[in-house]
Write a structure and sequence with these properties.
This protein is α/β, with parallel strands linked by helices. The chain has six helices and eleven strands. Helix 5 runs antiparallel to helix 6. The longest helix is centred in the last third of the chain and has 17 residues. GO terms for molecular function: transferase activity.
Length: 245
Amino acid sequence: MKVIFCIAALYHSKELVETLDSLNKCSQPWKAVVKLKVKPELELKVDNVEFIYGVDNGIYNAFNSIVDHIIDLDVYTFFLGEGDCLENDLSFLSNADLKDIPLIYGRAMIYTPTGVFSRLSKNGILCNGFYSGRPYVPCHQSILVHSSVYRDVGLFNESFHVSADADFMIRCFLNKINSKIVIENIASMASHGASSNPINFKSQTLDNLKLYLKYNKSFNNRYAFKFIIFTLRRFLSMAYYRVMP
């Protein structure tokens, strides 16, 4: 099935070129739709890439604009920010056991000065739709979403500044969207992204508290307790990256 890469960027930058170059790893039919804040003087022409332009109202507004653009197509969507890179050929989409699965997710790697960390536990064990032992749901760089899912659960909630992907995935789990985990590295995350930039720790902590208040009745008590402690610890320590078990 065709994959539409939804990419949010401010400008046509070196980081965006790296992101677009990484898409050539994909073994499936694909197209990229890039939303830019600023339209360059010279028209951009890149094979398999469509550029759209508009005011910068945040990364999830950009993603929603792109999804609106392609929602009637029978495709998977995959989300990347400027500087994020595809690290997988996505050949697993041809696996028989993934046929007709509308939500597929795996690992997203984070490159930091001290190493490469993966944001998915090694065994991929789930606990009520969440990763066992860690208050974590898959980030947008690790999910493939069929266009039909948006008709069931809606788009990204733009009231969340940096955690709209978490809100979206929780809604998918609570709406019992058929999903499967792929224990593979799918993409790498830019270290300058919104969720990894220290100036956004406060916004992300507030987002996580909003998530807790919105969904706490859906969490078991043990998970809810871990979620709130993890959120407060992140805010107090300002230490985001952890080696996942």
